[in-house]
User: What shape does this take?
Amino acid sequence: MKRPLLAILTAAMLCSPLAAVSVHADEVRSRMIRFGYGLNENSNQGRAAKLFAEEVAKASDGKLKVRTFGAASLGSDDQMQSALIGGAQEMMVGSTATLVGITKEMAVWDTPFLFSSAEQADAVLDGPVGRQVMDKLEEKGLVGLVYWENGFRNLTNNTRPITRLEDFSGVKLRVMPNPVFLDTFKLMGANAVPLPFSELFTALETKAVDGQENPFNTILSSKFYEVQKYLTVTNHVYSPWIVTVSKRWWDGLSQTEQNILMEAAKKARDFERQDTREEAARALAELKDKGMQINEVDPAEVQRMREQAAPAIQKVVDTVGQQLFDQVQAEAEKAAL
Ligand code: TF8
Assistant: This one.
């Protein structure tokens, strides 16, 4: 009696080795999804996270419940990434720059002055090389779904308006915990200090650091204008955000569940990019109203800064490899036409 049964079971297992553990491809189960992010609820990041949760609920008849956790309440980007890898948290959105320690290829997006328009960034990030870099996460236990926009970064500080390269001298500047950012601002002559974003407001408030760099949207939503006097429009780099999922958890989802999350992440991306651009367009006037002193940098001085940053660009090449770097450059050039 036992033998044939065993034979049947063995045969069944050979035909579909995962049948015993995986859910049906079209099944949607009741699941709770913790989605963490670092900015406030009232930010471009928070608004898009909310929309993502609503879209997932809609598409799954409420079976997939996304619970959003803003203001780094589940931890800094780094801490959340570890939680995703370990399977203790399902999803997050954060800077690609904070992933460089996990997947070195992500450093390619930190290349100073890589993109000159947001649309150019969209084309490259949503194109084949953007996907290729994202797929590198999988071997590290993360699944990248889509890129959202953090935006072009600009500088704030309390020491002086930055009008030329020499003005960086002695400014204690918080940078993202990432070697390219650290190098770039050291080369500028600043005293660059790596710090997680979740500690930034307090560091500025207590004057542990003099300045920081982030898109207008974040300077506004994180209320940096309360603790920063000068804002210099540098647009020195375009920062993407990336929506990531715990691979350990993702692999246990059905095809339908994965599709629902992917489609909602794309909808939230399209909404988020538009929302971010609209907000950025009016943010400067608002920041001026809040009392910030704003200056632009003379193009000749920007050129000097670019030249000064050249060794940091070489470091990106060394980190990600010449081939990937060239491919990104080529796609950026194509998208600029
Ligand atoms: C930074 C980043 C952050 C984002 C956010 C927490 O300065 O630009 O604003 O990573 O997701 O650390």
Remarks:
- The first helix runs from residue 2 to 15.
